[in-house]
Each structure stands twice: as C-alpha cells, then as structure tokens.
Amino acid sequence: MNNNFDYIQLYLRNIYNMVQRDQRSIETYKQYKKYLTVFKKWEDINELISLMNKELQNRQISNNSKLTKRNIFKAFLSWYTKWIIFIWIITVNLYIFVRKKVDVKLYQRRC
Questions:
Q1: Closest alpha carbon to 41 in 98, 83, 96, 2
Q2: Among residues of the chain, what percentage have pLDDT more than 70?
Q3: Looking at the predicted structure, is the pLDDT value of residue 98 above 60?
Q4: Is residue 36 within 8 Å of 23, Cβ to Cβ?
Q5: How many domains does one find in the chain?
Q6: Distance, CA of 56 to CA of 27 (rounded, Å)
Q7: pLDDT digit string (tens) for 24-56?
Q8: What is the pTM of this model?
Q9: What residue numbers bound the domain in which 31 lies?
Q10: Closest to 36 measured CA to CA, from 15, 57, 59
C-alpha cells in the first residue's frame, strides 16, 4: 500500500463485494463511501482518529448522522487494525519461512 487512503479504498471494495453477494445494501455502501473518502491524507492511526473526532464534533449535523458516522468509523477502525495485524503476521511468517529455507540450503551446500 502506497498511502493510507489505499486502505480505505480496499475496505470500500470489500463492502462493495458484500453488496454484490447481497450481504449489504447499495445504500450502505454509498454511506460508507461518502463518510470515509473524506479522509484522504493521514500518517498514522492516531491522526486518523483525531480527524474522525473532529468530524464527529461538527455541530451542524444531527445526532442520528453522528451515530451513523461513529458506527462507520468504528467498523473501519476495527477492520484496519485487524488487517494491519494480519499483514504483520504474514510478513513475519514469510520471513521465518524464507529464512529457514535459506538456512537449509546453506547447510546442504556445506555437507
């Protein structure tokens, strides 16, 4: 992933795939897209959370809209943290697997 906005795009693609399988409605996808594509640039998760909090502190939106936004933000943050942990585990396991494979080859050459 080149920038963090790519994670939002990936999440929206997952939601859209759920729409195609009739697990979510197209209206849900439109709301997720409307509220999440606002966050184009953010460096880390703390900055994203602060941007989301600023969005929720807007006094010009109704409580129902705030609740909807909060639930969408919560769902994305939950997915994002699980995705990052998943990528980290795969990266570590791949490194260990490659490392073991290299060690075996080096050992065989010495014998």
A1: 2
A2: 75
A3: no
A4: no
A5: 1
A6: 21
A7: 999 999 999 999 999 998 888 899 999 999 999
A8: 0.73
A9: 5-110
A10: 15
